[in-house]
């Protein structure tokens, strides 16, 4: 983890080279002269379009090179960023057990959410996930091609446009590579020998006088981990932990409910002997949990049927071609293909179903209810047979554990092609490019998706006895089982077509501190998405399934300019201005953003910096075009009761009409950010940066609950559409609009610290010490637009401190290292905050801090061959238990539950 000027990097590289090992990767892009002055060519730093000789700008940029990634022992870009302090709680979903975007990985800077961090590849945007539509899947990027990752910890909409609010992650690929580099690694969890990972990478490059070609191939595979094989997550019931009951009310045995079908009235007035909602008599006593009014459920521990980590594999190909047409003109192309496959397996479907028509229902009721209840439920038919009354509904909540797990094949494929020209026009460099990217997310049901109508039919004709476990092992049973499963599918497609031109460099305008630098350019892109689920899932006909439909497109036109003015010796003022116009069907938005920054070199060892800028996040395509859905929701309409003279304490709860979905009238979210910092090199081979930052975001897109809208109808009159004063019983034209709106705000302040020290030990080699620490001083959020801003720091998944400490030693052919990852303590608050207050309803439940130690050893046993072995999580630390989010009782975006993990890696260069 390095955050140094190039001059300092070269000093470190020189020391490293004298001891017989490769120079630091951060210096690999710098070209030095043979003269004593060590002149360094200008490079482009993330967060600026102007090439410069120094990594340090008015905004903080952290650099993670290929050695950092290699020494971490991880196999994907998203997993590496999770190990750093860059990513927050919403950052990584590739190992999540319950997610709609299986196999994807994202980054969440500063805890604002993954959609507020812009992800670039070589300075260009990537397509977002088509099913979620609010984040870039980092697993599109082949790790084999990565040279370094730069993280800009500042807003940068004035440079890059929308989404660059909480930061920018720019993945830089290898260039000008010559030869071949092949490596293969294998690792597995040490306790159970599971979660095996295989990774093979090949990079080949060749150069001639005018042409260079690079080809990178990456293969990665990970096997699943069963929840039952881990201490945390093996059960959804922790009876000795506060709020530790994460069991499902749907299991087998199940629970039952009886009521009058014609008007929904319950049959009984809850006498002590029996209830309207009751658990099966076979339900174990510890699983019987009381509901409201004396009702009871039969809870079920589903955890052993889930996975902590799904099976995944990925294949990626990346190639670049550069050809010099003339001394000042180059042509280039960049092409990328990736395929990521994940097999998810969740517990069998849960659901509530009417079982009154089952031929087994009468016997069940007679064996489970007292005679007084049966007298209310039963009658006789014309033949004198006892039957269930026609106006009685008999429903059952159960999990269909006699069917297979709900399995899905999740495949994400990406293709990207970019061609362009670049070169020099006098003293200015320029670039023109056009490109197209396409990401397809496909989910195919592979078993366990049950059709509601088919199951109801099988229950009615006796093919399924809903009151017991059904054995489908014989041929007839298998045929029935297969006939009840749906062929579900969901396909999302996200595309981007784009073009851009930029020109910049150092002008002939001389200022007291040097020459004026500038950059200017234009961007154009068109983004589109489709998200389609099969009709059965969309219509709610798949038990325990959910689907979505949406389609839309937008175009973006932008122009920008940037200047760097060295007003006097050691002092530089930077300014950037950008204008974006975004058009979509049904709406548009135009935003002008700017950024001002300054750096002042006090002397050769100390520099201070500051920046201030505005930013924005345009509504994503899902927010704009998610399909409309209609329904009813239980709520109390106090406005209606007041108008018709019903006292508030007598106002009944009713099923009110509602509409939800996307909103083409959304406006961009707006942000303000500023940063002040110190960059220091107080003595040789030691550098330090300390940055204080602040970020505010307004107009955040969200939703309000129906009851909240009714209670604040004067504040949101546009969300309530009454017919004759009513929201029920007058058709679909009366409704409460719960679709997305610009509603809330959020802000945070924090401090980032980055230290690096290269310590020399003569014949014993060198140690490169590194420390990256981040603390948030506050993070203010609203639970909804009608609630106050409250500080969430120190609460669930919001530790005050995150830190990475590293020590990497090298001496000739030997290398070794130890990396420590630390996440501070937090508190869970069950029940949330008191309405209208920042106080909590219940006492805090402490969540422990987390410290993970990773170690490795490497040996270069031949001129072109080396091995590396390592242990991640050497002390076998479990994730801290956090119960607020339910099972698996830890944050899968922050922590891994693999346990101690051993790996070995072999590399050879040709």
Characterization of the model:
The chain is mostly beta strands and about 900 residues long. It has 3 domains: about 650 residues, TonB-dependent receptor, beta-barrel domain (Maltoporin, Chain A), CATH 2.40.170; about 130 residues, no CATH class; about 70 residues, no CATH class. Helix content is about 10%, strand content about 45%. It contains 12 helices and 44 strands. The protein has a 22-stranded antiparallel beta barrel. It has a 5-stranded mixed beta sheet with strand order 1-4-5-2-3. Strand 35 and strand 36 form a beta hairpin. The protein is globular.
Rg, Å, rounded: 31 Å
Instruction: Give the number of helices.
Output: 12
Biggest sheet architecture: 22 strands, antiparallel, barrel
Poorly predicted runs are 1-40, 269-275
As a percent range, the share of strand residues is over 45%
- Distance, first to last CA: 28 Å
Mean pLDDT: 86
Structural class: mainly beta
Total beta strands: 44
The top level CATH class name of the largest domain = Mainly Beta
Shape, principal axes of CA atoms = globular
CATH architecture group name of the largest domain:
Beta Barrel
The CATH homologous superfamily of the largest domain: TonB-dependent receptor, beta-barrel domain
Helix content: under 10%
CATH topology of the largest domain: Maltoporin, Chain A
* The number of domains: 3
Which key features would you list for this structure?
910 residues, single chain, 10% helix, Maltoporin, Chain A, disordered N terminus, five-stranded mixed beta sheet, globular, mainly beta
């Amino acid at each position: 983890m390095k955050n140094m000027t190039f001059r300092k990097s070269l000093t470190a590289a020189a020391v490293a080279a004298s001891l017989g090992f490769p120079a630091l990767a951060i210096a690999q892009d710098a070209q030095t002269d043979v003269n004593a002055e060590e002149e360094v060519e200008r490079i482009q730093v993330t967060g600026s379009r102007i090439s410069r000789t120094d990594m340090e700008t008015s905004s903080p940029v952290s650099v993670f090179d290929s050695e950092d990634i290699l020494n971490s022992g991880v196999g994907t870009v998203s997993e590496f960023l999770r190990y750093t302090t860059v990513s927050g709680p919403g950052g990584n979903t590739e190992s999540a057990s319950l997610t709609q975007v299986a196999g994807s990985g994202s980054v969440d800077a500063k805890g604002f959410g993954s959609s507020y961090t812009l992800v670039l590849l070589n300075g260009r945007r990537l397509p977002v996930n088509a099913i979620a539509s609010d984040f870039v899947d980092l697993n599109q990027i082949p790790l084999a091609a990565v040279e370094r990752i730069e993280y800009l910890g500042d807003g940068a909409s004035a440079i890059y446009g929308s989404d660059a609010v909480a930061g920018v992650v720019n993945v830089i690929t290898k260039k000008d590579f010559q030869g071949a580099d092949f490596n293969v690694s294998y690792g597995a969890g040490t306790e159970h020998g599971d979660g095996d990972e295989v990774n093979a990478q090949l990079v080949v490059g060749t150069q001639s006088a005018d042409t260079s070609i690079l080809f990178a191939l990456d293969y990665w595979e990970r096997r699943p981990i069963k929840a039952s094989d881990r201490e945390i997550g093996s059960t959804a019931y922790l009876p000795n932990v506060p709020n530790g009951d994460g069991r499902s009310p749907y299991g087998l045995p199940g629970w039952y409910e009886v009521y009058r079908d014609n008007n929904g009235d319950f049959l009984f007035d809850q006498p002590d002997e029996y209830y309207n909602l009751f658990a099966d008599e076979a339900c174990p006593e510890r699983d019987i949990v009381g509901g409201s009014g004396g009702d009871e459920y039969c809870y079920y521990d589903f955890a052993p049927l889930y996975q902590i980590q799904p099976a995944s594999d990925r294949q990626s190909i990346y190639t670049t071609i550069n050809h010099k047409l003339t001394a000042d003109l180059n042509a280039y192309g960049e092409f990328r293909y990736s395929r990521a496959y994940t097999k998810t397996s969740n517990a069998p479907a849960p659901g509530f179903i009417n079982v009154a028509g089952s031929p087994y229902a009468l016997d069940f009721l007679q064996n489970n209810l007292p005679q007084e209840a049966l007298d209310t439920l039963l009658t006789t038919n014309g033949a004198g047979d006892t039957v269930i009354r026609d106006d009685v509904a008999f429903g059952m909540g159960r999990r269909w554990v006699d069917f297979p797990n709900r399995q899905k094949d999740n495949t994400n494929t990406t293709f990207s092609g970019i061609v362009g020209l670049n070169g020099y026009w006098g003293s200015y460099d320029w670039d023109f490019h056009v490109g197209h990217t396409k990401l397809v997310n496909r989910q195919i049901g592979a078993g366990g998706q049950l059709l509601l109508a088919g199951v109801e039919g099988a229950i009615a004709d006796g093919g399924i006895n809903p009151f017991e476990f059904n054995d489908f092992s014989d041929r007839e049973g298998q045929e029935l089982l297969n006939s009840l499963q749906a062929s579900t599918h969901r396909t999302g497609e996200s595309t981007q077509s784009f073009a851009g031109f930029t020109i910049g460099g150092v002008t002939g305008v001389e200022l007291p501190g040097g020459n004026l630098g500038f950059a200017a350019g234009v961007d154009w892109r068109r983004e589109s998405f489709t998200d389609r689920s099969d009709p059965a899932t969309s219509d709610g006909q798949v038990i325990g399934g959910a689907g979505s439909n949406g389609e839309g497109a937008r175009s973006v036109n932008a122009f920008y300019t940037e200047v760097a003015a060295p007003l006097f010796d050691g002092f530089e003022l930077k300014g950037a201005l950008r204008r974006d116009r975004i058009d979509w069907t049904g709406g548009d938005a135009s935003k002008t953003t700017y950024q001002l920054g300054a750096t002042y070199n006090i002397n050769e060892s100390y520099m201070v910096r500051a920046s201030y800028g505005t930013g924005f996040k345009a509504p994503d395509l899902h927010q704009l075009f998610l399909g409309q859905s209609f329904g009813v929701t239980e709520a109390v309409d106090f406005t209606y009761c007041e108008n018709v003279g019903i006292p508030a304490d007598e106002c009944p709860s009713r099923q009110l009409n509602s509409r939800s979905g996307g909103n083409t009238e959304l406006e961009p979210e707006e942000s303000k950010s500023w940063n002040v910092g110190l960059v220091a090199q107080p003595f040789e081979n030691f550098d330090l940066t300390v940055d204080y930052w602040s970020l505010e975001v307004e107009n955040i897109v969200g939703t309000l609950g129906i009851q909240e809208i009714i209670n604040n109808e004067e504040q949101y009159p546009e969300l309530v559409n009454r017919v004759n004063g009513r929201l029920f019983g007058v058709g679909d034209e009366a409704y409460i609009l719960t679709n997305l709106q610009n509603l809330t705000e959020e802000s945070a302040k924090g401090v980032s610290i980055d230290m690096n020290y290269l310590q020399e030990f003569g014949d014993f080699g060198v140690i490169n010490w590194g420390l990256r620490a981040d603390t948030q001083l506050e993070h203010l959020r609203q639970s909804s637009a009608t609630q106050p801003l409250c500080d969430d720091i120190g609460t669930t998944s919001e530790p005050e401190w995150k830190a990475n400490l590293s020590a990497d030693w090298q001496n000739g052919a030997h290398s070794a290292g130890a990396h420590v990852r630390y996440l501070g303590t937090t508190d869970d608050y069950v029940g949330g905050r008191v309405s209208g207050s920042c106080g909590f309803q219940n006492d805090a439940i402490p969540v422990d801090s987390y410290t993970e130690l990773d170690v490795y050893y490497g040996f270069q046993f031949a001129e072109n061959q080396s091995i590396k072995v390592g242990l991640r999580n050497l002390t076998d630390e479990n994730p801290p238990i956090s119960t607020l989010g339910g099972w698996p009782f830890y944050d899968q975006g922050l922590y891994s539950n693999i346990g101690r993990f051993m790996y070995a890696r072999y590399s050879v260069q040709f």
